[in-house]
Amino acid sequence: MKILEIREKTVPLNSAISNAYINFSQMTASIVSIVTDQYIDGEQIIGFGFNSNGRYGQGSLMRERLFPRIYDLSEGDYQSDNLDNIDPFKLWNAMLTNEKPGGHGERAVAVGTIDMAIWDLVSKIAGKPLWKYLSEKFNKGNYDKSVFVYAAGGYYQPDKEVDGLIEEIQSYIDLGFSVVKIKVGGGDVNIDIKRIEAALNLLGSGKKLAIDANGRFNHEQAVTFAEIIEPYKLRWYEEPGDPLDFDLMSTVAKNYYEPLATGENLFSLQDATNLIRYGGLRPDKDILQFDPALSYGLVEFLRIIQMLESSGWSRKACIPHGGHLMALNIAAGLGLGGNESYPGVFEPFGGFFDGAKVEGEIVKLHDMPGIGFEGKSDLINLLRTSLK
Q1: pTM beyond 0.70, yes or no
Q2: Strands (DSSP E) found in the chain
Q3: Catalytic site residue 366?
Q4: DSSP 231
């Protein structure tokens, strides 16, 4: 069982949308394939991966440091102990050889991208959907047959006013979503309040609406905005300030009764641990959004789950960022609290397999071996044609 080749390409996201901090017009992503000497029913087994939105492609780092470390391994170095599969943990350890602690940003994204392809590969070799493979290996065979999902949108776009936001949210409702997230912090507070109230008029309840400031506010702004929105009793108030400013998050938590959410820009077990230690978050209500594809992959995410449970948190508090099939499999197989979705945004990476339907707040699972990319025609076509 041998890895023959690892391929990588940087592709554009081609999106004009903006959040409170950045626009995505120049954003790129890395796509990766891992080619093996294994075949099932005459088809060569290839694992695919990509990095989640919000970070740029990592091709140079992968080619210069990570791929060579995998190529340097002998076949026996990365096989599972019973020799029937590839061991993701052995490959992960090889990628992190000779890397210092800390500095988790771009390196964590590069490793997480390759890690996604590895888990796709491993579950294909096992002949099981990734969610089922994870449930058997790490969740005592338990899994969620359907997963809570919400529609993440409400980005700022040129010439898009409140009426445009209402049309967008209605399109999510028409797709079957009942919980929606929109952006705040990108301009005048009064305009953001108009956006929130317009969304609430359509959704009917604060528990159907989450908001995301993408780290825009300082301490005073974050607390002031919290005071303004508290009467709306929103689903959650996400990333009010810099994701590494745990004192800010703790201050907001002390002054805001409703749920908070953060974690998508924390890229390691240590960062996640510091958030739990110093961020003032409340295990009974707050949401954690660590994205495995950005934070050293599923290997690291499993360690984060272990840390959370030993710290009194439920894994149900985790609703990963990313809005892609990898996160959906993880949420189902490990029994997390749900998954993000980006209807019509960040295509073809966002969204689920062809024909997937959202009913209320739930999307059902797929039964394809691996992550399920082969069941999403636009994505698998991009991966196959770009990584020949």
Answers
A1: yes
A2: 3-12, 28-40, 43-50, 146-152, 180-183, 209-212, 236-238, 260-262, 287-288, 339-341, 358-359, 362-364
A3: no
A4: G
Q: How far apart are CA 317 and CA 365, in angstroms?
A: 20
CA distance 201 to 190: 16
pLDDT per residue as tens digits for the range 274-288: 999 999 999 999 999
CA separation for the pair 268, 304 (Å, rounded): 8
Q: Which domains does the chain have, with CATH numbers?
A: 3-127 (3.30.390.10), 137-376 (3.20.20.120)
Instruction: State the catalytic residue, choosing from 124, 183, 208, 376.
Output: 183
Nearest to 329 by CA among 134, 47, 51: 134
**Neighbouring residues of 338: CB distance < 8 A, sequence distance ≥ 6:** 147, 148, 149, 150, 319, 331, 361
Are the CB atoms for 385 and 378 separated by under 8 Å? no
Taken in order 74, 79, 84, 88, the sign of the CA dihedral is negative
Q: Could you read off the pLDDT of 180-192 as tens digits, one per residue?
A: 999 999 989 999 9
Tell me: the pLDDT tens digits for 309-353?
999 999 999 999 999 999 999 999 999 999 999 988 888 888 888
Residue among 321, 324, 366, 376 flagged as catalytic: 321
> Whole-angstrom Cα distance, residue 81 to residue 102?
30
Q: How far is residue 290's CA from residue 272's CA, in Å, rounded to a whole number?
A: 8
**137 part of the active site:** no
pLDDT, the chain, mean: 94
